[in-house]
Amino acid sequence: METQDLKKVGLKVTLPRMKILELLQNADQRHLSAEDIYKLLLEADEEIGLATIYRVLTQFETAGLVTRHHFETGQAVFELERGEHHDHLVCIKCGKVEEFKNETIETCQDKIASEAGYRITDHSLIIYGVCPECQKK
Amino acid sequence: METQDLKKVGLKVTLPRMKILELLQNADQRHLSAEDIYKLLLEADEEIGLATIYRVLTQFETAGLVTRHHFETGQAVFELERGEHHDHLVCIKCGKVEEFKNETIETCQDKIASEAGYRITDHSLIIYGVCPECQKK
DNA sequence: GACCATAATGCAAAAGCTTCTCATTTCTCT
DNA sequence: AGAGAAATGAGAAGCTTTTGCATTATGGTC
Questions:
Q1: Euclidean distance between CA atoms A115 and A123, whole angstroms
Q2: How far apart (Å, rounded) are the C-alpha atoms in residues A9 and A17?
Q3: Element (H or E) spanning A18, and its range?
Q4: How far does the CA of residue A107 sit from the closest CA of chain B (Å)?
Q5: B9: helix, coil or strand?
Q6: Which one, out of A51, A72, A79, B21, has a CA that is 20 to 30 A from the CA of B82?
Q7: Is B95 helix (H, G, I), strand (E, B) or coil?
Q8: Tens of pLDDT along chain A (137 residues)?
Q9: What residue segments make up the domains of chain A, in order of their start?
């Protein structure tokens, strides 16, 4: 299945690519940094170079298979693209990321962009806050 | 005047800090990277080390005088805080940044955060697109 | 199933951006 | 003006990410 996905976007089916895709699909966290992936693969006894991980993730991004996010952490995180757009709620204490979707906001954004004469290509809405669990601590 | 601002937030009034503040107030671009500032100061014959600029900007950020943004450029940009919140429209071709404000979106964000149980601390909405000028090219 | 051209990988080195260290200088307050 | 504390400069170091190049693996073909 994933094999097809890779071929479809013109990428050879290689072990590193399969493993990385698999991990993105199955990991607890939906948002992983390159290093997270590297370490998780090591734990699973898959020694894949960090450079390869970066290269593969960039190719996946170009191919539209994953999305790269720059939260305010200094590290980019990657997320498997599941076709539907959503925005993010990031806990500044524990780093947890939740997703949400809001039609009103989407509509407003389109309106704002077109009023400014922009051809919109992407957008990113991130709300930073403290999640319920971290508020208790 | 700025002198007071600095003292108020517990920072000594030094030449580098004054020059950086001045630049942020008077530059054509409202959003400047540390390196932009470094170069602009050089042009104005003010040799201020890049390290100092980073330090000062971080202090200004902590003091609430400037805001740091992480657009998808790999470089942080800084903007003088003028008290009122706004969001950003970034041109992916020329890098130009425009600002906008939309009450509906703000309200939605607050609602979303509180529904998820988050205590909101900040948010960032960035719309990426191609500006009118760049569309012509 | 083996072969070949091409593409992918790994490693180490390099490249950006940002932060840190520490000796020296500059402020503030008296 | 002088003392103590804080800030600066320069270079080194730290992190994340990218690149170069020799080696290895893949996909299509015979």
A1: 16
A2: 12
A3: helix A15-26
A4: 10
A5: coil
A6: A72
A7: coil
A8: 566 778 888 899 999 999 999 999 999 988 999 999 999 999 999 999 999 999 999 999 999 999 998 887 788 999 998 877 889 998 877 778 888 999 998 999 999 999 999 998 888 898 888 889 888 86
A9: 2-80, 87-136
CATH node for A2-80 = 1.10.10.10
State the count of interchain CB pairs (< 8 A) between A and B: 113
Q: Determine the straight-line distance between the first and last CA of chain A, rounded to whole angstroms.
A: 43
Q: How far is B17 from chain A (nearest CA, A)?
A: 25
Smallest Cα–Cα separation from B96: which of B124, B65, B71?
Answer: B71
Paired with A89 in beta bridges are A98, A127
B contact residues 28-57, partner A, Cβ 8 Å cutoff: none
Which helix (H) or strand (E) segment is B79 a member of?
strand B77-80
> What is the third-level CATH fold of B87-136?
Dna Ligase; domain 1 (3.30.1490)
